[in-house]
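Full entry
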Amino acid sequence: MKFGFHLPTGMEGLALPIPFFRPSDFIAMAQTAERLGYDSLWGNDHYAPQNYVRAKHHSSIPNLYEVLTVLTAVASVSHRIQVGTSVLVLPMREIVLVARQVATLDQLSGGRLLLGVGIGAYKEEFAAARPDLMGQHRGAMLDEGLELLQRLLSEDSVTHRGRYYHVESLEMYPKPIQKPFPILVGGHQQTGLDRTIRHGQGWIPGWRPFNELKEWIALLREKAAAAGRDPDSIIVAPQFSCLIGRTQEEAERRYLNSGIVQHRISLAYTGRDPALAMENNIVGSPQVVLGKLEQLREYGVDHLAALSFCVNSVSEFSEQVHFFAEEVMRPYRARHGIIGP
């Protein structure tokens, strides 16, 4: 199992205070993560404050950093660690530009980019940043966008005349170093599994109750085999919240006092009961969390992608990065005879 955490590119106001990371913090944290042996660093993709953020913070406006730009900066100061989007809101983007950015970043990083994509969680972001897309079917846009993106990243010349995108005899170079290029598809419904089989090298859902996640991973493997794909070749990289405490009680108390709780409530319409969140995320003492990792490993999780630390300050963020590496990641690797990066 690989381990990665989420750089707060777009979480101010949602789950973190305003302001939070400065530009220099992204650079420093990337270097720290590589030194501590993490496998990956991730960033998410937000465009405008959500309604509950405006209500909670009033006149404070969050800093929402452009994720591919941040990852390019991170890749430039690291050598081994992978960088990924968790997730890029593809319907918000112009696909040809995304293809050029992705190919360029994969080249610049020496083949270290993981591209997680999804439809976006908050309708008010589309209303603010892309009102021209309101009323459009984001799922259909994602499907067509993924089809075109895959072709642009792999074919010499591309002509595509679709409902949402149109290119004529487009020859785009350079291509990514990685072949096939790793696109990870997000989503909290079975459509996400189907998109993964059609278009992706991996699945990057948000957290689910562990028993449900187990069932969905088995279903993903079954669907892959039925489609003629090698089930073991598909990366399973769920995203979780994370808070490690010296004791279980400390971890639960700090989790409940963090901004992630309100964020989870705002996402309840996706079918994820906030009451189940603490038990089914990476929250607890090191011993409890190591037990959760064993469960997830048994279910078929390959990559703990984009762990989101539930903290209230940058110093607490740094503390959690170090604590997880020393008290969870290293013992887990030692238990399984894994030599870390």
